[in-house]
Design goal:
The complex is a heterodimer of chains A (431) and B (89).
Chain A (H helix, E strand, L loop, with lengths): L1 E4 L9 E4 L2 E4 L8 E5 L26 H8 L3 E6 L33 H8 L5 E6 L5 H7 L2 E4 L19 E6 L2 H11 L26 E5 L9 H16 L3 E5 L4 H19 L18 H12 L2 H13 L6 H22 L4 E5 L14 H6 L5 H6 L3 E9 L2 E9 L4 H15 L1
Helix pairs in contact in A: 2-3, 6-8, 6-9
Chain B lengths: L3 H10 L6 H18 L30 H5 L5 E2 L2 E2 L6
Antiparallel strand pairs in B: 1-2
Chain lengths: 431, 89
Amino acid sequence: MGKITCDADDRWNAFITLCREAEHGDGPLAGVPVAVKDNISTAGIQTSCGSAVLKGYVPPYDAFVVERLKAAGAAIVGKTNMDEFGMGTTTESSAFGPTTNPVDTTRVPGGSSGGSAAAVAAGMVPMALGTDTGGSIRCPAAFCGIVGLKPTYGRTSRYGLIAYANSLEGIGPMGRTVDDVSRLFAAIAGHDPRDATSLDRPYTHTPSAEIRGLRVGVPHEFFGEGVDPAVGKTVRAAIDRFADLGAEIVECSMPSMKYALAAYYVTCTSEASSNLARFDGVRYGPANDIIPSWHESYQEHRKTHFGKEVRRRIMLGTFALSAGYYGKYYAKAQAARKNVRDDFARLFADVDVVAGPTMPTTAFRLGEKTDPLSMYLADILTVPANLAGVPAISVPCGTVSGLPVGLQLIGRHCEEERIIDAARAYEEVRA
Amino acid sequence: MVSESDVAHIAILADIGITRDELAEFTGQFNAILEYFDLLDQVEASEKPEAEKINIFREDEVVPSLTVAAALDNAGETEDDYIKAPKVM
């Protein structure tokens, strides 16, 4: 056992709660300071989800991944800023103010794990946990120039993660290097009986840069409309480096991409409309006035303490699930989701890894995205992996006008090892 | 297309309080978003969601849990060992 002191100057607003003194134990991460996204429960440390609705909430228990981090000897040095309930692509929708991108403070860090990405990119911590529902680890990793892994659905337990869209989300590691991401993933992956979707697939891999014979699929849809040509060119050049390493590049197609984003937003808002019903100001968070009736009190509480994006998504989800519209939206979204899964299955019969850009552009300016639909469109390249539940990693692959660009590598279910090796090989050849 | 009165109705169903100004703003945004969602009309109707669903049952066993005090720690108002809530009826 030991203690570490964290006196970092958080000028990026990366943290909601910074633990100036943190205890650590023995193990593979002994004494390593790790930041944890604020939607992951930490016993005794406020967990607000970036929302005023949970301000002051101190969980009485640790999430599974936090138990694992402590068992590995890591020091939890704080809780990082995020889009409220993970709903966003910029970390501007936090009730605790936006985080800025350490690469360029006039830009957003990406979202929704923007605080975790900024804390790593700024050197405040070597590694951090994020969560990814539609790209929330990979987007900020790409925008801040770090590495982020969205694991296979179920390979990390969601016990203690404050639910937003259960069928899509998962907890994953973020770090400066592929090796750090691999070390953090080894600490948190594994079976947990308290999460019924948890897989018994621990991760014990040591990254290797040997990728000769790897077949890398490049769907042309990943370079389609909306992708900044300069970003596309940078990523294409990175993919070409795989050929130098003995991999084979295979041009391919993913037709389901055209409705993947709509399927994603219908699904996540529907799940959110149900999951967020529990925030009523009765059991936790700022207290209600209990004098008025239940509905009056509940509506007033949610109007006052939820931000606009959260309310918008709850209402969209309620609409998509309502009688008369269920068939048009939710049922169609699930059919589209199956098409995405089938597309990946077809591709992975022929290739080992699918590659493309993580984000269609570099980091936006703070305040640039005011219209919700244009913000949603930015998630087009990351959501397919969540719909299919397959693992995906974002690794830095250069810059455009001084801003980082991320290369996304997507793998088969439970083949994190392979995409980690590919990312490691690319990292080495780039260095 | 949804109208302001549709959005007001959804707000009631969802128990989301909404102001008059917000009603116009949300209605405009909903229409843009729902228009985009119309892409899903292109998905073939015959393409059904996955048929195989797995229910994972476990024995209903009593295991160590939070103490009453810990469970009540975050509640706004309590009385004895109960959480006080607004009246429903």
